[in-house]
Structure formats: structure tokens, C-alpha cells
Amino acid sequence: MTNQDQQEQSANSPEESNEEVSAAGEQKLIEDRLAKAAQLRDKGFDPYPPRFDRTHTSAEATKLFEYVEVMASNGVGDDAEHPRTETVRIAGRVMARRGMGKAAFIDLKDGYGSIQAFARQNTMGDEAYEIVNLLDIGDIIGVEGSVIRTRRGEISVEAQQVTVLTKAIRPLPDKWHGLQDQEIRFRQRYLDLISNDKAMKNALLRSMVVQSMRSFMHDRGFIEVETPILVPVAAGAQATPFETHHNQLDRDLYLRIATELYLKKLIVGGIERVFEIGRLFRNEGLDHDHNPEFTTIESYQAYADYNDVMSMVENMVSYIAKETTGSMVLPAVEGVRPEIDLTPPWPRLDLRAEIKKQTGIDFVETRDVESLSAAMRERNIHVEAGSAWGRLLDKVISSEVEPNLVQPHFLVDYPVEMSPLAKRKPDSDEIVERFEGFVMGTELCNAFTELNDPVDQRDRFEQQEKQRLDFGDDEADRLDEDFLVAIEHGMPPTGGLGLGIDRLTMLIAGEESIREILLFPAMRNT
RNA sequence: GGGCCUUUAGCUCAGCGGUAGAGCAUCGGACUUUUAAUCCGCAGGUCGUGGGUUCGAUCCCCACAGGGCCCA
Questions:
Q1: Which residues form the Aminoacyl-transfer RNA synthetases class-II family profile domain (predicted)?
Q2: What is the pLDDT of residue A386?
Q3: SS3 breakdown of chain A: % helix, strand, coil, rounded to 5?
Q4: Angle at the Cα of A280 from the Cα atoms of A501 and A467, rounded to 5 degrees
Q5: Distance from C-alpha of A25 to C-alpha of A415, rounded to nearest angstrom
Q6: Which of A18, A75, A383, A386 is deepest in the core (most CB within 10 A)?
């Protein structure tokens, strides 16, 4: 139907014209609310006023009343039978409304909790009370009045005045069931935060994790820095980078996949304890514990080795758990995990011995792709065709060893092929001083005694570049000439660490999906 | 990349080869101490999108898209 047809038809059906046209569904709800905003304006009330002087949060108002009530019970105050506070001004979002004609109860929610407001026409006056009839669930309002306890025992602000601070023109999700639709929860996280306490709890936990991590590091004399996100070479880890381009410099750049190499340049520069908390970007798929952008802490400590880092990690993680939950023992979560005890020390497991124990494979005896592949096939471990040796062993570890590590453990001493930035053990050409921390069957951190021999480091990079060519391995690490020049000037012996903050928060929150922790996880186009 | 599940009113969910249901929210009415307030009444839907089968498809089949879970 063309526009003209539609116009002609509506002209022919006058009952459908103008304000008689009833908009469908969601649009109708929006129009109803816009109409109420217009009515507020007609009565001289700005539905979006610039300022409201709040004197108390919901929590403070509740606390104030409880204090007054205790004093009244001791005979202090004008009316010991009906204690009431001084006038307070609170503000928050209308979460529920129970109207009774000339009185109404409103559940208000602010950033600190909830409190009920109680509005009566005869206390407010007819004109002021009209605002109450124009309120919708979702509106943000201010309420002025003293705090009392209602007959049913609910601490409530008895409204002298109600002010609309922000008229909401879209409805909130179901007040009882909350927001269930996972897609909307992730795409419109603000609705999740409003409707579901758990979403807010996780968001606050994430902040507390980062805060306590920072204070742990600062207490130990670490300096926090920020290094480039746009980098000419995406090195320092084995991952595929995002590519971008700087127009004026006419130069291709990448989003960093690690902060490692820049931080080690700062170690060369003499900042002996340094860390960065920041976003990394890896161009890979999404699943319950991967997101293309995620946050890590990396730290580097001169004159330390991986044993020092190991004890720092177990101390840091248990400290953060204690600070954020009050205990180093995380409670069991039904259907997710048993109780997790993060109290140090965490068991150190020799990687070679552990693989041998779980699979019978000794990676020192199966030192090439052919023999390792054969040993894997014998044990029904999937062999990805065309994989480098290190990738195959990584598969053995992730499928046969990691799942058993539910309580915190360190796997210690990795083969050199998997670890191009780690220093060899003094007594071995094949094994490096590297460990990874595991909890709940997933990797939490990765750390090593940093390779500071510039000749060996160049050789390792070259082997990674060769692996990229020989095996078509896009994720092989990249040679970074600037970094090599830096350590050719001399990097002291150093212990380094990388730890995923989103995964650490998942662990503490008892969540199985990183999407419950990231406020705005990556989503497909709609 | 493969398999399974899922998409119905603003939200939470039923449903069925014969043309759409509930609760909450909205709208109208009653109600001055409620708290999932209560009571009465009304309205609200391209049943994810596009094809196919059929006299007839929201339902069966196929493809695609979004979301979830498992595997690779």
C-alpha cells in the first residue's frame, strides 16, 4: 500500500483519524508516558529538572529512622509511640506502585538499596498529590518528608512533596520475574542492573576485585603504568590481533594482544616493580570464558624469579578473595562447583610428571610432532592436523590435565617450544621456568622467569616466525625488533605475571560465564 | 565449523494443522496503611525473517538471522 493509498483510506474512515488512532503495543506505552510528561508540564512541573538536593540515600534514611526509633523507645523525642525523623529528601527509581485512590505506596530504589515512600492526599495537598497519579514504574523521583514506620511495620518516607526528576518513557521489565531474556540482559545491561540484584552484585564485585588488586600491588611497591594499545607489532602472546590503520601516518597498526613487551622495556629502564591493568584484544571466537576484549593485570619484578611470582599470585588471589568476600574459602555453588579453598600455599605440580600421571605420555620422550601425535591418538586425544608440537602438547594439557585442577594448583616447568618469552632452567635446554595457575579447571594466570638473554630471545622469536610459516599458525608470536633492541641494553633478571581479571572475578562470583562479569560482552550484529 | 535447544503482547510464560491465551505492566473505574495490594472493566499480537507442503501454517518441512548449551 502506498502512502497515498493510506492517506486516502484514513480520510475515508474518520473514526480512525487524529487522536482516535490507537498506537499498537510498545508505541502505545511510550505515548501514554509522553502524555503524562506533557501533563506535568501543563501543571508547571518540569519532568526533567536539572537538580534535586538529596539529603539521604535510602540506606541512610533507614538508618536515621532506626536511630530515632531506638531513642524514642528510651523516651527521647516528642512522640515515643510514633517516632518520626526530621524531614529528609531521598531520590530513586519507582520500582512498584500501590495506589489506593487518595493514598499510594511507592517502592523507591537507589544505588544503596530500597525504601518505601507513602503519599497521602491530605498530607500533601490536592495539587501536589496530582503528581503521584502521573507516576509510572521506572520514573526517577525525589521525595521529601520525614521517615516513619507504617502500621504494617515498613520504614517509609511519608511524603510532603513528590518531585519527578526524570520521566521514563519506556516501561521496565516484569517487576516480579525480573529480566530473564539473556539477550536483552547482555545487550541492555542497564535493564539487567535495574531488575536483577545479581547483575548489580557482580558489577560491584568486579570493582572491588580491581581495587583490592591495586592496593595489593601498591603495598608491595609496584608502580602502575599505561602502555600503548595501538601497536605496530602485536607481540608478547600467541594470539591473532585486530588490525587497524592510522590515516595520517599511513601506517597499519594492531590492537595489543599483551602488555608484556612494553612493561619489560620499563624494567630495562629501571622501574623495578611495574604493573598494568588494562584491556587486551584477541581476534578469536566467543564462548563462556572468552571475549575478544578482556582485562588482565601484568606485573614485572626485577631481581625476582618465577618462584617469587608464584607466592605473590597465591597471596594476591587469596587476599582479593578475603577483601571482597570476607574469606579465602569460596562457598560451593549448586551445580557449578564445590567449595574452593584459596588459602596459600597452592600445590605445585611438575607439568611433565602430571601429564605422565594423567595420560602416560612423557613429553620428553615424544619430542616431535609424529611421536606425540601417535601417543595422543593412542589415548583418543583429538589431534588437529598440521599443528606444531607445542600446540599438540597444549591440547594434551587442556583436555587431560586442566579439568582435574578444581582446587587451586600451579603447573610448573613448561617445554621451551610453548614459551618463547621464558628463561630456560639452568640445568635444561628443553624446559623453561614457567608456571600457570589453575582453578575450577581453567587457566587463571601465566608467569615465568623472563628471558633476558637477547640472543636467545631473538632465536625464540625467529622460531615463532618459522612456526607461523611452517604450520600456518596465525597465533604464533611475532618478532618485535624494538623489544630486542631494548633487552640488548640489558634487562635484569625478572619475574613476570599475567592474570585474567574477568576470570578471577568469575571465580569469586561463582559464575560460569564471562558474560555475567563483563558489563557489555561482545554480541553479534542484530 | 558440527550437533541439540530456543525466538508468541512492553515483561514473564502457556498453547495448538482450523486463524491467539494467562499473569504482571498499560488504559478506564472503585479504594486514605499497602508491600507480587485488592476488586470490576477495556485495550494490546506481521506468533524472529523468508520460502515450501496443505483447502487452511503460529504449529509440519527447508533456509537464514538472533540467543543459549555441548562438541571441534
A1: 205-521
A2: 85
A3: 40, 25, 35
A4: 115
A5: 62
A6: A383
Q: CA of A29: how far to CAs of A94, A139, A382, A456, in Å?
A: 16, 14, 55, 68
Contact A97, A105 (CB under 8 A): yes
Grid coordinates representing A79 are: 512522640
Class of domain A3-177: mainly beta
A177 CB less than 7 Å from any atom of strand B: yes
Q: Residue A443, annotated ligand binder?
A: yes
Task: Say whether the CB atom of A206 is under 7 angstroms from strand B.
Answer: no
* Global ipTM: 0.93
The full 3-state SS of A132-180, as one line of letters, equals HHCCCCCCEEEEEEEEEECCCCCEEEEEEEEEEEECCCCCCCCCCCCCC
The predicted structure's pLDDT at residue A79: 75
Please provide the DSSP assignment of A351-412 as one string: HHHHHHHHHS--TTT--SHHHHHHHHHHTT----TT--HHHHHHHHIIIIIGGG--S-EEEE
Bases of chain B within 7 A of a CB of the protein: 9-13, 23-27, 30-38, 43-46, 65-72
Residues 63-92 of A with CB under 7 A from strand B: none
Q: How many Cβ atoms are within 10 Å of A495's Cβ, its own excluded?
A: 23
Query: What is the pLDDT at residue A385?
Result: 83
Residue type present at position A523 = M
Please, what is the Cα angle at A390 between A294 and A470, to 5 degrees? 100
CA A78 to chain CA mean position, Å:
50
Q: Fold for A205-339+440-456+464-516, please state it.
A: BirA Bifunctional Protein; domain 2 (3.30.930)
Separation CA A418–CA A347 (nearest Å) = 22
Q: How many Å does it take to go from CA A119 to C1' B15?
A: 42
- Which residue has cell 608467569? A447
Three-state secondary-structure class, residue A518: coil
Question: Which parts of chain A register pLDDT below 50?
Answer: 1-22
* Per-residue pLDDT, A81: 84
Structural domain boundaries of chain A?
Answer: 3-177, 205-339+440-456+464-516
Q: How many CA atoms lie within 13 A of A356 on its CB side?
A: 10
Task: Please check whether residue A174 is in contact with residue A206, taking contact to mean a CB–CB distance below 8 angstroms.
Answer: no
